[in-house]
Amino acid sequence: MNINTQYEVLAKEIYENILAEEGMGTIIVQHNVSIRGAQTSQKHQLDVYWEVEIAGVIHRVAIECKNYSKKVSLGKVRSFAAALDDIGNIQGIFITKIGYQSGAKTYGLSKGLQLKCLREPKQEDFDKLPNKPKLVMTGNSYFLDNVNQRFHFDINWCVNNTPLKEGQPLDFNCMDDEIHFLSKTDSRSLLDLRNQLPRKLQVKYGCTHTYKFDNDTYISWPNDDELPPLKINAVSFNYDVIKYSSTTEYEGYWIAKNILEDIVTGKIYFHDKNGRFSQKTK
């Protein structure tokens, strides 16, 4: 289905929803209908069409859709009006995206056509609503706070296999993603261990957890030329689980996928992301 046909089908669906909102949901709205003219017997293709009998009188409506990126010319409106005159006893609606040239607008109104714009919404469209639509999003997020870790080195191994001496201070400055725990089968950073700390969706203080390593696991530093890899048995953590609550309000044209605007009255029909009727301006 090309974009022009999609535009026609969209118009059909919108009017189906408008009719349903006005209590006429049983009316069958058709797409791409051919009707023969009463005067010339020539067939006229109508993008959207429906008819309904009220008090014994048949009322017919035809819609011409132009998915144009510029204003509709007088010639296009005149051609549609001429087709309707040939068919006879039928109301016409002209729909486009951008608008109408002044001559097209004047002529269309003189022929009794309804002139509409079917387009994407703008923020100013929603400013016309008495009750502006809002989306309020609230949520709670839980995160770790006051995280402290303690390294449990294999002291005997460190003293016997490195220049470090028992009681000697061990100073290092690096980020938690730069410290790695290496074994024959695994490699994890201190940041990985932090992210894997158990937590629940509840506030809790004084949590503790210990990661125990395989017998041959070593801690690696970014400045290993100054500080050699050291054998380590475990890392223990103390931490709190904190809750953060937030509320955000969104106001505007997110509620609608498209709008149908009457260029004479300024009335606007809003349609949601599924194309369904939502509300209209007065």
Give the topology:
Layout: H1 3-21, E1 30-36, E2 43-54, E3 57-66, H2 74-87, E4 91-96, H3 102-110, E5 114-119, H4 123-127, E6 134-153, H5 155-161, E7 180-182, E8 187-189, H6 190-195, E9 204-212, E10 218-220, E11 230-251, E12 258-262, E13 268-271, E14 277-280
Parallel strand pairs: 3-4, 4-5
Antiparallel strand pairs: 1-2, 2-3, 5-12, 6-11, 7-8, 7-10, 9-11, 10-11, 12-13, 13-14
Helix pairs in contact: 2-3
Please give a quick description of this structure.
This protein is an alpha+beta fold and 282 residues long. It has six helices and 14 strands.
Please tell me about this protein's structure.
This protein is about 20% helix and about 40% strand. It is of the alpha+beta class. It has 2 domains: about 5-125 and about 255-280, Trna Endonuclease, Chain: A, domain 1; about 140-245, no CATH class. It has an 8-stranded mixed β-sheet with strand order 1-2-3-4-5-12-13-14, with helices on both faces. Strands 6, 7, 8, 9, 10 and 11 form a 6-stranded antiparallel β-sheet that branches. The radius of gyration is 36 Å and the shape is rod-shaped. The protein starts with a helix and ends with a strand.
